[in-house]
Amino acid sequence: MLKTFAYQSQEILFFAVRMIRALFSRTIYVSETMEQMYLIGVGSLFLVGLTGVFAGQGFAYAFTVELSDFGATTYLGRIMVIAIVRELGPVLTGLMIAARVASGITAEIGAMKSSNQLDAMVAFGIDPMKKIAVPRLIALVVMLPALTIFCDVIGLLGAYVVAIFITHITSTQFWSAVFDRLIFGNIFVGLLKPVLFSFVIAFVACYKGFTSEGGTKGVGRATTESVVLSSILILVVNFLITKVVFSLIKGYL
Amino acid sequence: MIELRNVSFSYGDQPVLRDVSFTVAHSESLVIMGPSGGGKSTILRLILGLECPQEGEIIINSDNICVMKEKDKRKLRKKIGMVFQDGGLFDSLTVGENVGYYLIEHTKMSYDEIEEKVVKMLGFVGLDADEVIDKLPEQLSGGMQRRVAIGRTLLSTDPKIMLFDEPTTGLDPQATKKVLHLIQKLRDEKSISTIAVTHQIVDSFAIADRYLVIHEGEVAFDGDVMQLRDSADPRVLAFLSPFRDSFKAVYERKFIGG
After folding, report:
1. Out of A115, A117, A122, whose CB is closest to B50?
2. Higher pLDDT pick, A69 / B200
3. Which residues of A touch B88 (CB under 8 A)?
4. CA B116 from centre of chain
5. In sequence order, which residues have a C-beta less than 8 Å from that of residue A94 and are 6 or more positions away?
6. pLDDT for the residue B241
7. ipTM, interface predicted TM-score of the complex
């Protein structure tokens, strides 16, 4: 078990290095990258928006109940920034994209592998790493932070609705508290996380696709593993970033 | 032209090929046969440089592909065309885009120029360009997909060697005939060396100059059809026994009865 884990970690690491090297090669497939940006970005807007609004409202309602015990409901905006911009927005968006996009990437590459399309590319002098993996990595690195910002905005708007109709604080009280905490440190952490999550998703999803074996059953198994592994890694990386960043830029938070 | 010298290959701990050696001369047509899982397709992957053997050498036109850099392999692959099992067509691209794939990716030809070449190539492989050029691979029959794959390979590279992985498996008799005719045409008109992996012994008569029987990763037989017929090797006999009647009938029709 431990041996398998160590071996797979090493393989993913080597694969990640190959992907990074391919990222800095001269050949970048622009049209494939734009297509992936559209599929990942625009295609996930509704899902991420829905996640953001309900997460924002749910947390705002839960905090309202707690804060009202102390008569501190005017602090709702501050807490929501910490909760959404720093933690929930990046993590929930990362998990949603892992579920939607990582599965798609692994299934697509796995299907291409089992039908010899990847070998055909190599036979025609095209590196699948550059043609298939790198466009997905670039698209994720660009679109995941953008989707996270979208999720944050929608989440805060959801919290705003709760603040007005349930918490019964004024619009000014809510937004001034929000902008009080929208400082460099929180925004930096909130955007650093999705950038790192995008690498995690791209590495795991592409690796699982490129190494899938055993026909359709193998592709199905690889797809499940891809979603599970990238989701777990997102949560682990999230904790590590929070921990490291807190010790490094605590003064800016 | 192609020479495998004492090649051994394994996937992880599982040995696939053991001490395999053979040569294929210029314009020669070799058919590799044998039970499933014997390592036949792996031989084609090794020749194309998609895998490297743990032991032995693969010499193509006096170059050892196993020790080449990826850049040099890409150059060499221009002389080797491979038609994968089930075609290996890109399912998100149309037939036209599949056939013109190499030109689109590697040249600065205009769309019209590429289309002209694609139409010509589709004609060469016996397909009506107007009918199929805008279709997706899944909309074609198995035989048509195989012919599109051959056309794509011919237009992509300037092959001196063509590798076919199960070119007729799963095709109806008419489609099989067309694909076999195309392989013969390549050998006769373009002087291309061909290596075909197949289970279809009867079909192989149409294209083979020589036969190689692979059994559990080892060469069990290497010779022409007469030697194949007379082989007393139990591994060859075991492989041929289910086909004995059809083998004999076709053999007699082709080589004795005219």
Report:
1. A122
2. A69
3. 115-117, 119-120
4. 26
5. A144, A148, A193, A194, A197, A200, A201, A234, A238
6. 81
7. 0.82
Average pLDDT score over residue span A4-18:
89
pLDDT value at residue A25: 83
With H, G, I as helix, E, B as strand and everything else as coil, classify residue B134: coil
Give the model's pLDDT for residue B256.
64
Query: What pLDDT is attached to residue B6?
Result: 94
For residue B139, what pLDDT is reported?
A: 95
Average pLDDT over residues A102-108: 96
Q: Measure the CA–CA gap between A7 and A248, rounded to whole angstroms.
A: 32
C-beta of residue B186 within 8 angstroms of C-beta of residue B125: no
Two structure tokens written together for A41: 């970005």
Taking the Cβ of residue A122 and every Cβ of chain B, the question of whether any pair is shorter than 8 Å is answered with yes
Domain boundaries, chain A: 30-247
CB-CB: which of A119, A122, A124 is closest to B101?
A124
Give all domains of chain B, ordered by start, each with its CATH number.
2-79+160-256 (3.40.50.300), 88-157 (no CATH)
What's A32's DSSP letter? H
DSSP notation for B234-252: HHHHHHHGGGHHHHHHHHI
B77–A116 CB contact, under 8 Å: no
pLDDT of residue A99: 95
Q: Span A227-231, mean pLDDT?
A: 95
More confident residue, A7 or A44: A44
d(CA A216, CA A202): 21
What are the phi and psi torsion angles at B21 (to 5°)? -135, 135
Q: What is the rounded distance in angstroms from the CA atom of residue B248 to the CA atom of residue B204?
A: 13
CA distances from A140 to A107, A155, B240 (A): 17, 21, 54
The SS3 call for residue A185 is helix
Name the stretches of chain B with pLDDT < 70: 251, 254-258
Rounded Cα gap, residues A216 and A226, in angstroms: 15
Between the two ends of chain A, the Cα-to-Cα distance in Å is 40
Q: CB burial class (10 A; 0-12, 13-18, 19+) of residue A151?
A: buried
The DSSP call for residue B207 is T
Distance CA B151, CA B103 (A): 13
pLDDT, average across residues A201-219: 93
pLDDT of residue B7: 94
CA A18-A21-A25 angle, 5° bins: 130
> What number of residues does chain B have?
258
b/e code B138-152 from CB counts within 10 Å (16+ = b): eebebbbbbbbbbbb
